[in-house]
Amino acid sequence: MELSAESLREKLLRELEADHVEVEDTTPSRCASSFRVLVVSSKFQGKPLLQRHRLVNSCLAAELPHIHAFEQKTLTPEQWDKERLKPLGGNYLQPQLLIGWFPRS
Amino acid sequence: MSGSLGRASAALLHWGRGVLLRSPALRPRSSGPGGPDSGSTEHLDGLVKKDKVVVFLKGTPEQPQCGFSNAVVQILRLHGVSNYAAYNVLEDPALRQGIKDYSNWPTIPQVYLNGEFVGGCDILLQMHQNGDLVEELKKLGIRSALLDAKKDQDSK
């Protein structure tokens, strides 16, 4: 069972026909494996968040039981384009920085 | 399944919580193993429907044992949601596995609104950021504290 960031990335790219996938290995040393992923795919179009995340979960159904912690962000290509234009667009993978901000009106 | 329940029961008695096992009526709303069927569909169905906001955490709201569970607690606090049911999966292995099977979701924390599975920390965070959480709370008759905070901001 291959559990590398690269193997996860390839699987997501392939099975979700993704435009863009980033996988970050967030495993602290000497601990069980943890990953953070960003998936951009038009398959997410029109689907609520929970459904999108379940798509990713099904794609990685074989790997997830061996993964200790898993974070994911799922965007359509349009959402991804908008996200990159934001000032913190590069920091999408650090949600903990964004807790405490009031929702935009 | 029976193996892990047996261990859980033995652990309960060892910790002197035999009272909980013998009198289910005294079962506390949050924390503490629920008894021999704590991982069953019927039991979990009851738990998620008993309160409007239900979360399954690693740890407790006062002492989360995981960063993602802590994020859920902090987001609820930001919105002024204080009256919710929190179940600590670290106290009960049967609950920990049972809730994952129940929701067909591999990780903890898990958030339920009005008996319906909403998602984990990622989803709750995105709902918080895009305003959906305020709306969902409103549907449950809960007014988010952030609405009042925003009002204060606008009126200054």
Which fold name fills CATH's third level, the topology of chain B?
A: Glutaredoxin
Q: How would you describe the shape of chain A?
A: globular
Oligomer: heterodimer
β-strand percent of chain A reads 15-25%
Low-pLDDT residue intervals, each spanning 5 or more residues of chain A: 100-105
* Residue share in helix of chain B: 40-55%
Taking the sheet with the most strands of chain A, its summary is: 3 strands, mixed
CATH superfamily of chain B: Glutaredoxin
Name the strands of the widest sheet of chain A in spatial order.
1-2-3
Number of strands of chain A: 3
CATH class of chain B: Alpha Beta
Structure commentary:
The complex is a heterodimer of chains A (105) and B (156). With 105 residues, chain A is of the alpha+beta class. In chain A, 30% of the residues lie in helices and 19% in strands. The radius of gyration of chain A is 14 Å and the shape is globular. Chain A starts with a helix and ends in a 20-residue tail after the last helix. Chain B is of the alpha+beta class. In chain B, helix 4 (67-78) packs parallel to helix 6. Helices cover 51% and strands 11% of the residues of chain B. Chain B has a single domain (41-154), classed as Glutaredoxin (3-Layer(aba) Sandwich). Chain B has eight helices and four strands; from the N terminus they run H-H-H-E-H-E-H-E-E-H-H-H. Chain B has a four-stranded mixed β-sheet, sandwiched between helices. Chain A binds chain B through residues 49-50, 53-54, 57, 64-65, 67, 69-73, 95-96, 98-105, and chain B through 67-68, 71, 74-75, 78, 104-107, 117-123, 125-131, 133-134, 146, 149-150, 153. Chain B: Homodimer. Interacts with ISCU. Interacts with BOLA1. Chain B: It comes from Sarcophilus harrisii (Tasmanian devil). Chain B: One of its GO terms (molecular function) is 2 iron, 2 sulfur cluster binding.
